Amino acid sequence: MALRAIAGKKTLTLGLGFGPSGAAAAASFPGLGSGLHARGLVTFSLPDLPYDYGALEPAISGEIMQLHHQKHHQTYITNYNKALEQLEEAMTKGDSSKVVHLQSAIKFNGGGHINHSIFWQNLKPANEGGGEPPHGSLGWAIDTDFGSLEALVKTMNAEGTALQGSGWVWLALDREVKKLKVETTANQDPLVTKGANLVPLLGIDVWEHAYYLQYKNVRPDYLKNIWKVMNWKYASGVYEKEVA
Amino acid sequence: MGGASLLSALACGVSSSSIGAPPHSFLCPTPNRRRKSRRKVRCAPITAQFELKPPPYPLDSLEPHMSRETLEHHWGRHHRGHVDSLNARIAGTQLEEMELEDVVVASYNKGSPLPPFVHAAQVWNHDFFWRSMEPGGGGKPSGELMGLIERDFGSFERMLKEFKEAASTQFGSGWAWLAYKANRLDVGNAVNPCPSEKDNKLVIAKTPNAVNPLVWDYSPLLAVDVWEHAYYLDYENRRADYVSIFMEKLVSWDIVSSRLHIATARAAERAREDERRRREDDVEITNREAVEMYVDSDNDSEPE
């Protein structure tokens, strides 16, 4: 089990009804604000991976998983917390310029935290069920909305390959019309920026840091292989909860 | 395509890769046609092709700051891929006969980029980037460049700080730039109605993905690539370290100075052109007024 040692701040619950498994549960509220509108600021810490760094090989190397988790995701969390603290101070002071100025850092770093927290859940070692195609209601929905699982994978891989620069490709559920969609977001924009009714079922990180050490510039090979460790059980769980 | 034109193409040594393209103008370019980009044009091209130009130094000569492996992938795969894609995309279009910088600006399409843009811009950006570096580079600039840096940023150190800040806060993929801005407002693509000497200055800019300051009519002087592929093999996630090393050990300030020289000359020429046009407009208005006065004064006595 990949271990984390950051102590004591309340960790992110994903807001989808799922908490990251193995996450620390300490719930202290640091930094009560001073002033008229004091509130307890919730900050975040790195969730544990539910598998070892090397467990997704050969699809994704242990080297990438460790860097991706310990450096990239941790940096998003560190900077997100910093931005939140600055935001709280600015809000307390009524400093509107500062509040607005902080929005891009919050969107970027907060988005990075949201997206990666989902991503770790989306992946599973092959010997623990990773790659097993979806059954039940999600399987039927995929056939209905895309024709077949192969067609969905083809679409997601095409969108992921075509994405210029950095971003994510998503399998989304539009909870309003109960339909599945493939969406992309740029940089660390979370899926919700594409529509308030969109629920992420699966997300694939197509930032170069997600694959470069192993696949270099050949993003299509990364996209082809990641399906071997895709955690369809997670996606099914989210889907079933939404359509229930 | 007729046999005769094929023969003439072969006689002029056109590579086999360019034969078989859609019928296009076979005009041989006139010998004195000025070419800003280093695009090699052969006699009677069936298609005009942009080429992958190598960095002006061996691929291992920037080590240990930028590894040969990085150069092999970055130049040999990424940059090469953009050249190939650009040529494929512009084949048979008007863009094919344009200089690379013009292709960049035209395909940027004032902010709604067309498909060739990413490739054209990335070809230009990478050519510019390789030439911004040299083995044993770094140190500090001098002369006119240093003077302008101190004038516009306060000090070299402050310019460095701002440059690194731009590079670090370009969220996602992109580039950070030192550029010379002449007679242009800070709003992209806007025209300055009252240009003054004070508008000519050095600026630092950051751009996403393939965008570069050519689209704002700035003159780029220096660029650092902050796409992850530019530094990941050597620095992993440590973009700040990469940018610091780039500035300390790789930048060719000689090249930056010569680019500044060209930029200031271009700005001066433009200012003279604008002044000339303004004077011509003034003369035309004066002439028009004189004619109107003549007609008015003769109104009553105009013969039928």
Automatic annotation (TrEMBL), chain A:
EC number from the UniProt entry: 1.15.1.1
Protein name, per record: Superoxide dismutase
Tagged with keyword Metal-binding: yes
Location of this chain's protein in the cell: Mitochondrion matrix
Positions of the Manganese/iron superoxide dismutase C-terminal domain: 135-235
Family: Belongs to the iron/manganese superoxide dismutase family.
Species whose genome carries this gene: Phoenix dactylifera
InterPro entries: Fe/Mn_Superoxide_Dismutase, Mn/Fe_SOD, Mn/Fe_SOD_BS, Mn/Fe_SOD_C, Mn/Fe_SOD_N, Mn/Fe_SOD_N_sf, SOD_C_sf
Cofactor (UniProt): Mn(2+)
Residues involved in Mn(2+) binding: H68, H116, D205, H209
Described function: Destroys radicals which are normally produced within the cells and which are toxic to biological systems. Destroys superoxide anion radicals which are normally produced within the cells and which are toxic to biological systems.
Quaternary state and interactors: Homotetramer.
GO cellular component: mitochondrial matrix
The reaction(s) this protein catalyses: 2 superoxide + 2 H(+) = H2O2 + O2
Keyword entries, A-Z: Manganese, Metal-binding, Mitochondrion, Oxidoreductase
Segments forming domain Manganese/iron superoxide dismutase N-terminal: 43-123
EC main group: oxidoreductase
GO MF annotation, one: manganese ion binding
From TrEMBL, chain B:
UniProt entry keywords in alphabetical sequence: Chloroplast, Iron, Metal-binding, Oxidoreductase, Plastid
GO biological process: response to light stimulus
Record's GO cellular component terms: chloroplast nucleoid
Domain Manganese/iron superoxide dismutase N-terminal stretches: 49-133
Residues in Manganese/iron superoxide dismutase C-terminal domain copies: 141-259
Localization per Swiss-Prot or TrEMBL: Plastid, Chloroplast
GO molecular function ontology, one term from the record: superoxide dismutase activity
SUPFAM superfamilies cross-referenced by the UniProt entry: Fe,Mn superoxide dismutase (SOD), C-terminal domain, Fe,Mn superoxide dismutase (SOD), N-terminal domain
Pfam family, one: Sod_Fe_N
Protein's UniProt keywords contain Lyase: no
Leading EC class: oxidoreductase
PROSITE patterns: SOD_MN (PS00088)
InterPro entries to which the protein is assigned, alphabetical: Mn/Fe_SOD, Mn/Fe_SOD_BS, Mn/Fe_SOD_C, Mn/Fe_SOD_N, Mn/Fe_SOD_N_sf, SOD_C_sf
Listed EC numbers: 1.15.1.1
Reactions catalysed: 2 superoxide + 2 H(+) = H2O2 + O2
Cofactor: Fe cation
Family: Belongs to the iron/manganese superoxide dismutase family.
Name of protein: superoxide dismutase
Organism expressing this protein natively: Phoenix dactylifera
Lineage: Eukaryota, Viridiplantae, Streptophyta, Embryophyta, Tracheophyta
